[in-house]
Amino acid sequence: MQWSEVVDNPYFENLPFKIELNRYGKVEMTPASNKHGRLQFLISSLLGRKLKKGEVLLECSVQTTEGVKVADVAWCSKAFIKQHAYQTPYSVAPEICVEVVSPSNSKQEMTDKVQLYLQAGATEVWVVWEYGKVDYYDNTGILAQSAYGVVVKP
Predict the structure, then answer these.
(1) Residue 113: which CATH number?
(2) Staple partner for 67: which of 13, 21, 82, 85, CB 3.0–4.6 Å?
(3) Tens-place pLDDT, residues 90-116
């Protein structure tokens, strides 16, 4: 499948989980808990308050080398929005891509997603674990904190 087929397909409307495409165009689904939704909201609110020169997107689709991945939260600078508008999926990842780990996600899956978002152009990728710990990554590896000056407290 192509991402436009997923977006336009009425069978995928109002599902209680995230949908992504793997590199073969097959749909992958990840069920999300209410705690996942709460963390997604808290991170997006924090980014919106702290980083005024851009926009926060929820469920941000990004074309990667392994198919379309959907960041739970993304922050896009005004320059990014000016250049890419609301292209779906984005051909380049926004500056910050955030994944909130669901109970069904493995550590390897999160490691792979970090690399895919960075390869697609993200400046930072944040992995938020359900217990509140946040791992920050850039192209050099794991970071002690975000270069954007945003502090996520568990």
Answers:
(1) 3.90.1570.10
(2) 21
(3) 999 999 999 999 888 889 999 999 999
